[in-house]
Amino acid sequence: MHIFAMNYRECDPKGCGHYGASRGTRKHNGVDMACPPETKVQSPVRGYVTKLGHPYADDLSYRYVQITAEKYRFRLFYLEPSVSVGDVVELGGEIGTSQGLGEKHGASITEHVHLEIMDEHGGYVDPTPVIVALRSTLGRTVV
């Protein structure tokens, strides 16, 4: 099953997975797609891998992949990449495998992959409409 066909992370003791959810003094800048560890993660867009990074400076075991397409940067967090910087990825093409979050956050967090989108000015864009479109497009083409 395609990662974007899965459910959004609902609220748990660590927070809620929808765009704009409260994170104390800040807002959640993306959406979380609930999935068990070791789920294959697909690209939400055709583009170029422009960065492989680490979301936590104190724990380099967690990773993210950044894909640039047109004027947007798509970042997918908590996955072990299967791509390299400079690779061209296709819409629905595999980019990695989801990582387990339990070791860092405990059993109270729902396992998930986080997707955020930034525009050319570094502003965050609600990924919800992108996921809705992906569900209709990829639901027909990705098994």
Throw out a few tags for this protein.
3-stranded antiparallel β-sheet, mainly beta, 7-stranded antiparallel β-sheet, 2 helices, Glucose Permease (Domain IIA)
Layout: helices, strands, pairs:
Layout: E1 22-23, E2 26-27, E3 31-34, E4 40-42, E5 47-53, E6 64-69, E7 72-77, E8 79-81, E9 88-89, E10 94-98, H1 102-105, E11 112-118, E12 124-125, H2 128-141
Antiparallel strand pairs: 1-2, 3-11, 4-10, 5-6, 5-9, 6-7, 7-11, 8-10, 11-12
What does this protein look like?
By secondary structure, the chain is mostly beta strands. It has a single domain, classed as Glucose Permease (Domain IIA) (Distorted Sandwich). Helix content is 13%, strand content 34%. The chain contains two helices and twelve strands, in the order E-E-E-E-E-E-E-E-E-E-H-E-E-H. The strands form three sheets. Strands 3, 5, 6, 7, 9, 11 and 12 form a seven-stranded antiparallel β-sheet that branches. A hairpin with a 2-residue loop joins strand 6 and strand 7. The longest helix is centred in the last third of the chain and has 14 residues. The radius of gyration is 14 Å and the shape is globular. 31% of the residues are buried.
Alpha-beta classification: mainly beta
Q: Bin the helical content.
A: 10-25%
Number of domains: 1
Rg estimate, integer Å: 14 Å
**Helical element count?**
2
Q: What is the approximate shape?
A: globular
The protein's oligomeric status is single chain
Strand content: 25-35%
Number of strand segments: 12
CATH class: Mainly Beta
